[in-house]
Structure formats: structure tokens, C-alpha cells
From TrEMBL:
Region (Disordered): 424-443
Source organism (scientific name): Sulfidibacter corallicola
Protein name: Sigma-54-dependent Fis family transcriptional regulator
Sigma-54 factor interaction domain boundaries: 179-408
Nucleotide-binding found in the keyword field: yes
Length: 493
């Protein structure tokens, strides 16, 4: 087999999703090609060299590698970036014919260099009875590994470009249905929505208040193939004793005031989606009925003799921790078990701050149209403020209200300044507006200003708690570890 055949085989075996598998196949092909009895590939990371694959010429895995491969030699090549070729004695025979015997071998280690740094090491060895690696062979192998490296680089680049394309495509699709944000966690969530939209199963959406759970439910509806409507109901806003009739309907005369037959929301959302928001607020007896309905696809209107079949997809949402509610006896475990398999978690805004600028642009455009205004953007100081808020009161909804409010009160007709940016409950706080914290007004890079702002927030919290750090930590909603590591980082400990 010649060098081109080796490449042909590698290329036909490689796939975009696995660089390691490419190296692995290369190992296999190289063993035959170079008359080596053992070929291995090592990658380099913070912990040193680690073996990706080590195989014998016959194609079996060599394990543990350190028994058959002089790891020190591989480490030296990784450090120096120079080829090494020597005759060495290993603990065991590669062929495992006489495992207890020491075995001499001709060993060759060649670095794989990408962008001037050693990214991996190829190791080949063959029995002492065979000729040692000649200069011509070493040169040939060196060239082959260089080509392999190029191949891997190209594949990696293709993979990255593909990822960018996929992300851009997902972002476009998300925007089309009104979900703004291209943070990886949002792209992942969107890909999950697309998968779940294809099937009729009940879905549970979890996330803090205002993260966009209803928007996600709507996306499940829009991306699915439904002829019926999307109907939404907040389980916490309906009187518990009316909930059954609201969901399943009732027949005339079934209770005082039931003057005529009335279809419930399940029926109204026939062939569509019924969105049950704040599922955690549903009384436990209703949870039993809901579970039964989900399991058999039938509803029992209040006062009806016969059940009715419905084809309504249920999407539920909650900001509560259902597991804890089960522990507290406030939520039925069987219903939770039924729902938890297909859960979409919406990340809080503070965990995807890179989405804030795009969301701001989106809300500015929205309220420009609504109020007939012409705001262009937020001034950099104002952007600093919105980037550093924690949105614990309402995530995206909170950001939306902050932008809307600032647009109403702002004196500058073109740009939103920091003057009217306030967190939702700031006016009630005794300490006033954190946007007035001095460092925000200073010059500096984004990192520097964020650092200064974090330090000011910490100081402010400690002052307000009259030096009581535990109280300050709690007021900021931070864990002990995070709080003390932040104090350390900002020289406040
Ligand atoms: N990713 C987003 N892109 C654009 N707008 C969003 C996004 N997320 C949320 N919003 C907006 O924020 C507001 C709150 O969203 P939504 O009602 O879907 O949140 P929620 O999690 O269901 O809230 P709650 O917990 O109070 O029921 C809405 O005006 C919605 O349009």
C-alpha cells in the first residue's frame, strides 16, 4: 500500500464529528504501511501526553500503552518538538507471545506540529530483528504526518464553519418565531424545541419567571404541524373549584350556574396546543385528573355521563422546583415522573448575558414602533448598567420593562442614557439606585468597568448589611464560595 492509498483510506473513513476517530484510523492504516508492529497517537494537554489510540499491526488495541511504549520518549518529543529514533527495551512483548520477556524494539516518535506548537506525537515501533528506521523512512513518515495534520486542520475548520452555519441558521429560525438570542445555551434549547415539536408528547418547560417559557411553548406549537389553536391558561389564576370545568367543560345543569353546555379548554384547543402555565399551582386533586387525561387521551366534562376523546397537545410550564414540591407533598410524583422525561429548561438571563445587547435592540425597535419613537441604541454607560444587572426579579421580562420605561422617560430622543435605567424594585430599596455607583462612569475596557462595578456592588452590599458579610452574601444571592472568591478577587477580603 502506498502513501496515497493511506490517505484515500483515511479520507474515506474520516468524519466531521470526530477528530479522534480520524487519528485512530490513521494509526491503523499507518501500522500496515510503515511495517511498524505498533503505532500510537498521543495528544497533549495540561496534564501531559495522553494516548488517543495504540494498535498493533494486526489491528488489536494495545493496553496499557505504558507497558509497550516508552512514554518518557513521547514526553520528550512533545516538549522539544524534535523527532526521536532509538532502540529501546520494553517491559512486554508487543506480540504477547512471551509476555514476561523484555522486548527490544526500534522506536520512532514524530511530533505533529500545528501553528508552531506541538499538538500531538506519533509513535511507531518494530521488532529489534527488523531493520532500524532509515532516514528516508523517517522523512517519508514526517511528510505523511504533516499531511495528516493538514487534513485534521481542514476538517476542524470545516467543523467550525459548519457549527457557525448551524448557529446562524438556528438564530434566524428563532428570530422568525420571536425568540431572540444566540447564546449556545439558547441554540441548544432551540434545537431541542425543534425535536420536541415533531412529536405529540406532553412537554414540560422549566425556567425562572420571565425567561420566556410561554414564548418557548408557542415555538413548540409553531414548529409543529397543528391545525387547531394555541390556548393558554394560568393554573394559578383560576379558582380551584372552577378549574375542572374550565379545563374539561361541563354540561347544562351540572352545578348551580351551569345554564348551558360549555366546552372546556381541552376541547377548545382540539388539534392544537393547550399551554398550562404555572403548573405548580394546580391543586393536587386536579393533578390526578390531568395525569389520567394525559394517559388515556379522554376528558370527562363535569356532569357528563360519557368521556370524550380529545386530540390536544399539552405543554406545561413552571418556575417552581417540582422535585422539591414532591418532597413537600405539594406535587404528585406520578405526574412529575410522567412529565420530566421531556423537559425544556430555559436558562436565566444572567447566565447568557451576551444576549442582552441583541435583546435591547429588539425591545428598542418594538417600543419605537409602539410609541412612535426613534431611539437608536443605548449609550455605552447604559449598556454597562444593563449588562451588570442580575435580573433576579424577572429575567427577559424585567429587561424589557427597564428598556420600555427608560424610553418613556428619557430626555435624549436618540440614545438611552443611564439616567432612567432602574432595576424593578430599586425604588423600594433603601439604598437607592445601583446604577449610580461611581465606577460605571469611569473610562476603561469592558472587563475593567465590570470589575469596578462588581467591587462597588460587593462594597455596597457589605455597607448596607453594616459589615455583616453573611447578610451581604445573602442579599446578593451568592453562594459562600462565590462570595468569598469575589471578595478575594476584588481585594475586599
Ligand atoms: N428570548 C426572548 N426573545 C424575545 N423576547 C423574549 C424572550 N424571552 C422572553 N421574552 C419576552 O419577555 C416577556 C416574558 O416572556 P414569557 O411570558 O414567555 O416568560 P415566562 O417565563 O412565561 O414568564 P412567567 O414565569 O412569568 O410565566 C414577554 O414579553 C416575552 O416576549
Amino acid at each position: 500500500m502506498d502513501r496515497f492509498e493511506v490517505f484515500h483510506r483515511i479520507l474515506s473513513q474520516s468524519n466531521l464529528s470526530s477528530m479522534e476517530s480520524m487519528a485512530y484510523h490513521t494509526v491503523y492504516e499507518m501500522a500496515e504501511f510503515s511495517l511498524a508492529q505498533l503505532v500510537a497517537y498521543f495528544t497533549i494537554d495540561a496534564g501531559g501526553v495522553s494516548c488517543v489510540a495504540a494498535r498493533t499491526r494486526e489491528g488489536s488495541d494495545v493496553s496499557p500503552p505504558e507497558k509497550y511504549i516508552p512514554i518518557k520518549m513521547v514526553q520528550q518529543v512533545a516538549l522539544s518538538g524534535n523527532i526521536q529514533s532509538k532502540t529501546t527495551t520494553m517491559e512486554a512483548n508487543i506480540n504477547r507471545v512471551t509476555p514476561s520477556f523484555a522486548k527490544r524494539q526500534h522506536a520512532l516518535a514524530i511530533p505533529m506540529i500545528s501553528n508552531g506548537t506541538v499538538s500531538g506525537v506519533w509513535f511507531l515501533s518494530r521488532s529489534f530483528e527488523m531493520p532500524a528506521y532509515s532516514d528516508t523512512e523517517v522523512q517519508l513518515l514526517k511528510n505523511i504526518f504533516k499531511d495528516v495534520e493538514r487534513l485534521i486542520q481542514n476538517t476542524r475548520q470545516l467543523e467550525e464553519q459548519q457549527y457557525e452555519l448551524d448557529t446562524a441558521k438556528s438564530e434566524l429560525e428563532m428570530n422568525r418565531i420571536g425568540i431572540i438570542g444566540d447564546h449556545p445555551s439558547m441554540v441548544r434549547m432551540f434545537n431541542l424545541i425543534k425535536k420536541l415539536a415533531r412529536v405529540p408528547s406532553t412537554v414540560l418547560i422549566q425556567g425562572e419567571s420571565g425567561t420566556g417559557k410561554e414564548l418557548v411553548a408557542n415555538a413548540v406549537y409553531k414548529l409543529g404541524a397543528y391545525d387547531g389553536p394555541f390556548i393558554s391558561m394560568n393554573c394559578g389564576s383560576v379558582e380551584p373549584n372552577l378549574l375542572k370545568s374550565e379545563l374539561f367543560g361541563h354540561v347544562k345543569g351540572s352545578f348551580t350556574g351551569a345554564l348551558k353546555d360549555r366546552p372546556g379548554l381541552f376541547k377548545k384547543a382540539q388539534d392544537g396546543v393547550l399551554f398550562l402555565d404555572e403548573l405548580g399551582e394546580m391543586p393536587t386533586d386536579m393533578q390526578v385528573t390531568l395525569l389520567r387525561t394525559l394517559e388515556c387521551g379522554e376528558i370527562h366534562p363535569v356532569g357528563a355521563d360519557q368521556p370524550q376523546t380529545v386530540n390536544t397537545r399539552i405543554v406545561c410550564a413552571t418556575h417552581r422546583d417540582l422535585r422539591k414540591m414532591v418532597d413537600d407533598g405539594k406535587f404528585r410524583n406520578d405526574l412529575r415522573q410522567r412529565l420530566k422525561g421531556l423537559t425544556i429548561s430555559v436558562p436565566p438571563l444572567r447566565d447568557r448575558r451576551s444576549d442582552i445587547p441583541t435583546l435591547c435592540d429588539y425591545f428598542i425597535k418594538k417600543y419605537n414602533e409602539k410609541f412612535g419613537l426613534a431611539f437608536k441604541a443605548l449609550r455605552p454607560e447604559a449598556m454597562n448598567v444593563v449588562m451588570s444587572m442580575d435580573y433576579r426579579h424577572g429575567n427577559v421580562r424585567e429587561l424589557e420593562h427597564i428598556i420600555e420605561r427608560a424610553m418613556v422617560f428619557e430626555d435624549d430622543p436618540n440614545y438611552i442614557t443611564e439616567n432612567y435605567l432602574q432595576m424593578e424594585d430599586d425604588e423600594d430599596d433603601d439604598g437607592g439606585d445601583p446604577s449610580s455607583i461611581g465606577p460605571l462612569r469611569t473610562e476603561g475596557t469592558y472587563e475593567e468597568r465590570m470589575g469596578a462595578y462588581a467591587a462597588a456592588l460587593l462594597k455596597d452590599a457589605i455597607e448596607k448589611s453594616k459589615g455583616n458579610k453573611t447578610k451581604a452574601m445573602k442579599s446578593l444571592g451568592l453562594s459562600r464560595t462565590t462570595f468569598y472568591s469575589l471578595l478575594n478577587r476584588h481585594g475586599l477580603s
